[in-house]
Protein: Ribonuclease Z
Amino acid sequence: MIEVTLLGTGSPIPDPRRAGPATLVRAGDQTFLVDCGRGVQQRLAAAGASAGALTALLLTHLHSDHIADLGDLLITRWVTTFDPDAPALPIIGPPGTRDVVDGMLAAFGHDIGYRIAHHPDLTGPPRVDVREVESGTVWERGDVQVRVGATDHRPVAPTLGFRIEHAGASVVLAGDTVPCAGLDDLARGAGALVHTVIRKDLISLLPQQRARDICDYHSSVEEAGATATRAGVGILVLTHYVPGIAPGQEEEWRALAATTFHRQIELGDDLHRVEVHPGMCGAPDEIRPGA
Ligand SMILES: [Zn+2]
Ligand SMILES: [Zn+2]
Structure:
């Protein structure tokens, strides 16, 4: 079984009830954090996890809402890890990830210096193992495998989707993307697809062009459903709601997804948890929109 917890279901717009984009995936004894948005560590704590307990950090892309709390995560892991032999944190992301991580550590350079000067057992800066990837199998450890596929969030490029496999169960994390062949391939037959979504029917009515611009590089709720149907996934998990789902509007969002996807649909508030078991996929083309 793979357990998916939506740590943050928000977006760049600050929301009193929703943290920024971040998803926790527990597979066997390994714990993956996918994206690292605003408030991620409060949500990690609420989910019974912590920066120090992460096996690896996976970044779908380098938009600010998806990396906002990366610096805090790195510093917190460093100061709360007491094992001198603890492994460096693997950080797997698209090209550019190394620049971002180095920049975050540089921004906290004064803090890192203060702590090394003050604590004799802190002898070096936070240890990271950055791997810039674009495709293929990027993780094979124990009974967990992670594969990467290209998504389409242009002009943000390259951007990644991740497929995590464990003991016959599989979860795909799409990140921000329009429907594309790369995601269709990555998600084919997966147990669950975690997909970011925006309400294009609402956003396209806003007066500001800058707000309407976001429609051209995100998927709508219906488009995410259609991707899930094409790929034959078992569960569609919606997150990164733009605008944030107001209390009582969950069923309206679910109904939109159900116009194009007829299996299990999951959405909700931060800390919503979904279990993905082996064999929870459909077959591609088995479920047709409008059927
Ligand atoms: Zn983005
Ligand atoms: Zn985003």
User: Anything to note?
Assistant: The two ends are 30 Å apart (CA to CA). The chain has one domain: 2-276. Residues 2-276 form a domain with the Metallo-beta-lactamase; Chain A fold (CATH 3.60.15.10). DSSP finds ten helices and 14 strands in the chain.
